[in-house]
Amino acid sequence: MGVCGKREFELLEKIGFVRYGGSPEELKAANMLIDELATMGVKGELEPFKVSCYDVKEVKFEVLEPFHKEYTVRGFGLSGNTADEGLTAEFAFVQQAEKMDLLDAKGKIVMVNGNINPTMYENIIKAGAVGFITFSGSVLDKEDETDIEMRTLKEEFLKFGKIPGITMRVKDAMEIVRDKATKVKITLKQDEGECDSHNVIAEIKGTQFPEEVVTFVAHYDTVPFANGVYDNGAGTVMIMEMLRHYVENPPKRTLRFVWFGSEERGLLGSKYYVEKHEKELENVVLLINVDMAGPIVGCDRAWVTADMSLVHMVEYLSKEIGHPIITVQDVYSSDSTPFADKGVPAISFARYGVGGSNPGHNRFDRIEYLSADSLQHTSDFLLKFCERIVDAVVFPVPREIPENMVEAVNKYLKKKAEKRAAK
Description:
Structural class: alpha/beta
Shape: elongated
CATH class of the largest domain: Alpha Beta
Oligomer: single chain
Order of helices and strands: HHEEEEEHEHEHEEHEHEEHEHEHHH
Radius of gyration: 23 Å
Distance between the termini: 57 Å
Low-confidence stretches: 416-423
CATH architecture of the largest domain: 3-Layer(aba) Sandwich
Largest sheet: 14 strands, mixed
Helix content: 25-40%
């Protein structure tokens, strides 16, 4: 038996709904995966973990001077609350929130270009700003066809403090800067707390080398508004199909399958997993991650956070069977990275849409832009790769992370920045 793109596509259609990390819909999708495992006689485990959650009750943004206008905005999740009467302050556009941009930001509500990253947020807090504004989208957006992004302050931000924030459309942000707003008002009221997100776990014992574990992972959560079939329902169904293959073709090595919750909220599911199962990771010889696939037009890619010999192996296989794939030694912004941080060699597979064919992280992540044939195309290569890895006479991938990849992982996880902040 091989893999079946048609079956993958049918499961993808079933789970193609918004399933944001920590939401009831995410749990619904997790239980659907448990049910799918049961059809193969495999018992799945739901492993809950706590995530921050919020419910915005009221959000309002007004320019007060030199003109008055109210704009449609979204509250920045977990950024706290204003007083009941709102927060009124002078306005400043601080571009990239570099220290030079913030010389006169104390006591002001500041707007940054696009989204905000931890360094920008830290600079804003240290500069004494009292609120912040971000923006999203394109000047070409039609309001009735697009959404203002829902954004949340992640844990790495909160160690610097908390000030109220909002996000708005880019064309409104441009108007505010163009018309030289000087005084603005934010009103933000939200309930903040904790809720459960879930990882889904299943395992097939190896017949010859059960102490050696190859772990397959994919995240099954989505961003708000997105049905998440491309990102990452596709990876979710592909590793399910791999599990189905190995149920019928028992592997020599133990295979563990993990579907992560709350990846879109900062790799929370995989970060929780590697901490909770750190001792077990000593037996994991390779982590295989699948994140985004299925576009009708696109190209296959692989990111190897491991020894260069694995890059060469994938390149050789590509030429051997005639399957084009772009392979690099690098960190991929996905659930493979927390494993690499713990010393587990990792490879991430994806099929990228090209030329605007597959919008992601918005309401246009839709099933009609994907196909069963495309899932089949990438899954066939993944299976060929796994056949050589899982049942190898001697496992071919060194159980180590090269120094250049250690540095790349540290940079991605901002470890050096965290050390500086702690001093």
